[in-house]
């Protein structure tokens, strides 16, 4: 976890981490809203996540999904994955790395739980589409940006987006693996 930094530094660190962990750029996703678009623009091959873009069609039925935007679709999908125990954060306290002063594993865990508890459905509008509370509403409640839960929410992009060869999208879906209690 890194402290506030310029997009050029973020783009460089993202590239370095992808190389270090042998992750193809086509498997990297960055928030493309606002200034975050520079990270995608700088790293050719990275995918961009735009929270307010339209939700994807259902991959099984091909039907249009009933979400107000992509962020809502990914948030509801994350809730399903959490409730069905299909996702876990596989990190031991001694493996936790942060460049943010005072951000320990325990603090990280508390912050993530607080953020996830604030991902809530919002009143359905006249359009009857499912929606979640805005980032600004969550910021107001917890006093900071929900960057940790946003990362998990954005991970669901790979679960809801069309795959290579479908609808002419050139995306890749990493597969979730069953956690077996050991990293090796």
Molecular structure report:
- The chain is mainly alpha-helical and 184 residues long.
- It has two domains: 1-50, no CATH class; 51-165, Nucleotidyltransferase, domain 5.
- The chain is 37% helix and 3% strand.
- It has seven helices and two strands; from the N terminus they run H-E-H-E-H-H-H-H-H.
- Strands 1-2 form a two-stranded parallel sheet.
- Helix 3 (70-83) crosses helix 6.
What does this entry show, briefly?
This protein has helices spanning 7-20, 37-42, 70-83, 105-117, 135-142, 147-155, 157-160, and strands spanning 29-31, 47-49. It has 184 residues and is mainly α.
> Into which percent range does the helicity of residues fall?
25-40%
Tell me the count of domains: 2
Which stretches of 5+ consecutive residues score pLDDT under 50? 165-173
The geometry reads as globular
In the CATH hierarchy, the third-tier topology of the largest domain is known as Nucleotidyltransferase, domain 5
Order of helices and strands: HEHEHHHHH
User: If you average the pLDDT, what whole number results?
Assistant: 86
CATH class label of the largest domain:
Alpha Beta
Major sheet strand order = 1-2
Number of strands: 2
What structural class do the secondary elements suggest?
Answer: mainly alpha
Radius of gyration: 17 Å
Main sheet: strands, sense, barrel: 2 strands, parallel
CATH architecture of the largest domain: 2-Layer Sandwich
Number of helices: 7
Distance between the termini: 23 Å
Tell me the strand percentage band: under 5%
């Amino acid at each position: 976890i890194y402290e506030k930094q310029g997009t050029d530094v973020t783009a460089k660190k993202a590239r370095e981490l992808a190389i270090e962990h042998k992750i193809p750029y086509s498997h990297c996703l960055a928030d493309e809203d606002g200034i975050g678009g520079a990270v995608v623009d700088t790293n050719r091959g990275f995918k961009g996540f735009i929270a307010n873009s339209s939700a994807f069609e259902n991959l099984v039925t091909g039907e249009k999904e009933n979400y107000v935007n992509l962020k809502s679709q990914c948030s509801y999908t994350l809730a399903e994955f959490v409730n069905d125990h299909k996702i876990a954060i596989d990190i031991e306290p001694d493996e936790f790395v942060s460049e943010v002063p005072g951000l320990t594993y325990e603090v990280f865990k508390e912050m993530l739980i607080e953020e996830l508890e604030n991902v809530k459905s919002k009143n359905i509008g006249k359009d009857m589409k499912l929606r979640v509370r805005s980032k600004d509403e969550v910021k107001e409640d917890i006093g900071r940006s929900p960057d940790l839960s946003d990362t998990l929410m954005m991970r669901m992009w790979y679960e809801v987006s069309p795959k290579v060869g479908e609808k002419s999208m050139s995306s890749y879906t990493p597969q979730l693996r069953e956690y077996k209690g050991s990293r090796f």
